[in-house]
Amino acid sequence: MALNIAKRIRAEVGDSFPVFFRLSGTDWAEFPEEDDTTGEWKQWGVTQSSQLVRRLKEQAGVDLVDVSSGGLWHQQKIPTGPSYQVHLAEYIKQRNPDVLISTVGLITDGQQAEDILQEGYADVVRAAREFLRNTDFVLDVRVDYLNVVILGVLTH
Predict the structure, then answer these.
(1) Structural domain range at position 74
(2) Number of independent structural domains in the chain
(3) Among 37, 111, 125, 128, which has the highest number of CB atoms less than 10 A from its own CB?
(4) Which residues, 6+ apart, have CB-to-CB distance to 17 below 8 Å?
(5) pTM above 0.70, yes or no
(6) 86: domain CATH number?
(7) Is 18 part of any domain?
(8) Which among 83-92, 110-119, 128-137, 145-154 has the top mean pLDDT?
(9) Distance CA 97, CA 74 (A)
(10) Residue 154: per-residue pLDDT
């Protein structure tokens, strides 16, 4: 279904309009993604996500895939902490180097974001919750990380 939706969106907007797709990299289930004996998929995980990303790029022309996780299984146990979802984006990026990959997951400062980009774990870093917690986040990054002063901007 996801691939069909992406194809229909691409057909509607054309090739000159960017199409982004957000997916869950894993269900965070406590059992293996795939049964080693039968090959049956037991849960949604990073391997299947990586395969879907390839199809989204090749068959639907998706320009960027934003990798998040969770919220799909009632017994999930998500180990949160700084950059806790970045490894999912990294895995997918390694297997799909020609696809722009975005990552999320408790990204709270400029150095952390820059490290993610410099290490090649993702092409884009999103820090939406940090913007909700700290509306001056971009200004803090400007001052603390970039050491740039923007005249005329008031900070508290």
Answers:
(1) 2-146
(2) 1
(3) 125
(4) none
(5) yes
(6) 3.20.20.70
(7) yes
(8) 83-92
(9) 32
(10) 52
